[in-house]
Write a structure and sequence with these properties.
This protein is an alpha+beta fold. The protein has a single domain (2-64), classed as Roll (Endonuclease I-creI), CATH 3.10.28.20. Helices cover 51% and strands 15% of the residues. It is built from 3 helices and 2 strands; from the N terminus they run ααββα. The protein has helices at 2-21, 25-35, 56-61, and strands at residues 37-42, 49-53. A two-stranded antiparallel ribbon has the order 1-2. Strand 1 (37-42) and strand 2 form a beta hairpin. Helix 1 packs across helix 2 (25-35).
């Protein structure tokens, strides 16, 4: 279901913010509800996928850098 894909996308982003930025899960959820964008990627049967986006300006202000991932 598309709802399941959306829920997984949100949970994955909350986990990422919690683990990478030491943000509480409650704070991560509040941030995503205010500034996150949930996007549907595809709904082709039977595959349904979604992603949660958060602007780089937010994660940079929270102290995250991509340097450890070797992204330029």
């Amino acid at each position: 279901l598309l709802d399941d894909a959306a829920n997984r996308a949100v949970r994955n982003m909350v986990t990422f913010l919690h683990e990478e930025l030491a943000m509480s899960k409650a704070d991560a959820t509040l941030l995503l509800s205010a500034a996150g964008n949930l996007k549907v990627c595809q709904v082709v049967d039977p595959l349904k996928t979604a992603r949660m986006e958060l602007g780089m300006d937010y994660v940079e202000k929270l102290g995250f850098t991509f340097s450890k991932f070797h992204i330029k």
